[in-house]
Specification:
By secondary structure, the chain is α/β, with parallel strands linked by helices. It contains seven helices and five strands, in the order ααββαβαβαααβ. The strands form two sheets. Strands 2-1-3 form a three-stranded mixed sheet, with helices on one face. The chain has a two-stranded parallel ribbon with strand order 4-5.
C-alpha cells in the first residue's frame, strides 16, 4: 500500500489530471465487473433442436402358393415371418401340410412360399401303414423326408438330415442345384441322384 502511495505522489501530473485518471480507471473497473457478473445470469443453455425422422414401415412383396385358401401375391411389413405370410393367404387348406417349413423364419422381399399338399406317403404313415419308397419314383426335394432321401444313392442318414434341416432353416429349394448349398453335397455327389429328383 505504501508503494502505491509513493508511486501516486511521484506521478508528474497535475491534481486535475490525477483525478481524471482515477475516474477513468474506476469506470473501466466498474464496466468490467458489470459484464463479468452479468454473463452467467444472462447466458442461456443452448438446447439442440430435436430431430424427428418419420420412419415409414417398409413393405415387402411375397408370393404364397400351394395349399392355402387364397394363393397370391401379398404385401407385408419388413420383419414378417413365414407364419404371417400363410395367415395373409387365408391359412393352410385341409389338404396342406406346412410341416416342412420353418414358420418362424424371417422372409425376404420377392420370396415365394409354397405349401405342399400332404403326400400319399405322409397320409399312409398317419394311418399306420409303412410304405417303402420305390426306387423308380421321383423324390420331391421340398417334400421328401430324411428316410426318402436316404433311399437315394450316395445319401446316408447324416446327409439326409442335413438336407431336411437346411430346407427348414432356409425355405424351399428353388432348383435341384440348390442342394449343393447343403454341406457335404457337391457336384459329383449330386450327379449320382440328380435324375431322380424333382422340385
Amino acid at each position: 500500500m505504501e508503494n502505491i502511495r509513493n508511486w501516486w505522489s511521484d506521478l508528474h501530473y497535475t491534481p486535475l489530471q490525477k483525478r481524471s485518471l482515477l475516474i477513468v480507471a474506476g469506470l473501466v473497473l466498474a464496466t468490467s465487473s458489470f459484464f463479468i457478473l452479468r454473463t452467467p445470469s444472462s447466458s442461456q443453455a443452448i438446447t439442440p433442436a430435436t430431430l424427428t425422422v418419420d420412419v415409414a414401415a417398409v413393405d415387402i412383396t411375397i408370393d404364397v402358393q400351394g395349399a392355402v385358401l387364397h394363393p397370391g401375391v401379398y404385401k407385408l411389413t419388413s420383419g414378417s415371418r413365414v407364419i404371417d405370410a400363410i395367415k395373409a393367404a387365408g391359412g393352410v387348406t385341409k389338404a396342406g401340410d406346412p410341416s416342412d417349413l420353418n414358420q418362424a423364419r424371417l422372409i425376404a422381399d420377392g420370396e415365394q412360399i409354397y405349401i405342399y399338399a400332404a403326400s400319399a406317403t405322409a397320409a399312409t404313415k398317419r394311418q399306420g401303414v409303412k410304405v417303402k419308397p420305390k426306387s423308380s419314383s421321383f423324390v420331391l426335394v421340398n417334400r421328401a423326408t430324411a428316410k426318402e432321401f436316404e433311399a437315394l444313392d450316395g445319401i446316408g442318414p447324416v446327409l439326409a438330415s442335413r438336407i431336411v434341416a437346411y430346407r427348414k432353416a432356409n425355405g424351399p429349394f428353388t432348383s435341384i442345384d440348390d442342394l449343393q448349398k447343403v454341406p457335404g453335397i457337391g457336384a459329383v455327389t449330386l450327379s449320382k441322384f440328380k435324375s431322380k429328383l424333382r422340385v
